[in-house]
Amino acid sequence: MNPYAMSTLKLELIETSPEAPEALTLVHELSLRLGAITGDDGRKNFSAGSVQSPRARFVVAYLDGEPVGCGALRPLDLDGHGHVCEIKRMYARRAGAGVGSHILRYLEREAAAIGYREAWLETRRVNTVAVDFYARHGYRERANYGVYVGRPEAVCFEKGLA
């Protein structure tokens, strides 16, 4: 559990199963939002099983006890070395409240502690809020990888981890 102060509210980040009720609700909300923004809900590129290894994490953010966001990291072994993780299912119910930033920082710290040296992720170019969010947090555009190769609507990012 990692408490953070947000104004006078208490934010807690709790690792859980992506199949926990709160996680399922948040991921469903994210899928609806992505579908409205991009025309694709993103479900085909994420499964609960992909974040149930010792080198994966799924976290739910609670603000004063209410679930308000989530995020995941999972191994991305495209080069056979296992030093890259992928950030998935990042979501905050209230944009601009700082929840997403706290989730992302938590996932980055966890990834570094596990031994990952880089974090990669994908979003859609049309999702300018997400594109700007990742750029503000030090992510740089990179060549599309994996299932995103040859898909001009996708934009991939990377960041080195300390």
Structural class: alpha+beta
Kindly provide the name of the CATH class: Alpha Beta
* Assigned CATH architecture: 3-Layer(aba) Sandwich
Shape: globular
Strand order of the largest sheet: 1-2-3-4-5-6-8-7
Q: Which value, in Å, is the CA radius of gyration? A: 15 Å
Mean pLDDT: 88
Tally of separate domains: 1
Listing every helix as H and every strand as E from the N terminus to the C terminus, the arrangement reads EEHEEEHEHEE
Whole-Å distance between the termini? 21 Å
Quick one: biggest sheet? Answer: 8 strands, mixed
Say how many strands there are: 8
Q: Could you tell me the CATH topology label.
A: Aminopeptidase
User: Could you state the CATH homologous superfamily?
Assistant: Gcn5-related N-acetyltransferase (GNAT)
Strand content: 25-35%
Fraction of residues in H or I helices: 25-40%
Uncertain spans, ≥5 residues at pLDDT below 50?
none
Tally of alpha and pi helices: 3
